[in-house]
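Exercise 3.2. Students should predict the tertiary structure of the chain below and write it as structure tokens, then compare their answer with the key that follows.

Predict this chain's 3D structure.
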Amino acid sequence: MEVKVYNNPIEVAEKFAEFLSALIAEKEHTYIALSGGSTPKLLFSYLSTNYKKIDWKKVHLYWGDERCVPPDHKDSNYKMTFETLLQHIEIPSHNVHRVLGEKDPTTEAKRYAEEIESTVPMKNGLPQFDLVMLGMGDDGHTLSIFPHEQSLFNAAQTCVVATHPESGQKRVSITGKVANNALHIVFLVTGSSKAAKVEQIHKKKDAYLEYPAAHIEPSDGNLYWYMDKDATKLL
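Answer key:
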């Protein structure tokens, strides 16, 4: 595990953009599971403006999790990615593997799992993404695996249906087993509201194992935490 600390979320996005660009450049095809959130939003905007030479035609984009809403809904991770990145780059439409959030969640989780399994290279009996981008919520959740449904982390399926503990909103999420099978896993964590959970997870304090983010441990890949000073102020 490597921890990389920068001054602010913008710098986190800029430094991770360098990593991402280099990864794409060195591979014939790159399979990436994206995340939503404020720092990825900064990242996507920065990429679309400053990394115009990336060959997106050899990149396949997926989502680690998605809210079960239509693609034009304000809560849609796809909508955010489209507005900040996809509409500004030249990427074939068949390289963009969207979760159909407007469909029945259970049916869509099964369909999306089949799409991932049929297009992403397999290793260890599981799809192996080149990169899985992750965020971490204030409650220690990652992907859409929340503490109250931690059993979903190691579910047998590639994708599961998760439920937000407060809103009850349904979400389609890849499982922790799939995330941990990736070649590279990168947490993008910024802001002082994350500092307490960052401290507990990284120092293995208190009930840290109750947080799904603490169970991200790649089986044979690399784990990076890209964070700003606010998120790491208790380390």
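Discussion points: The mean pLDDT is 97. The domain at 2-174 is CATH 3.40.50.1360 (Rossmann fold).
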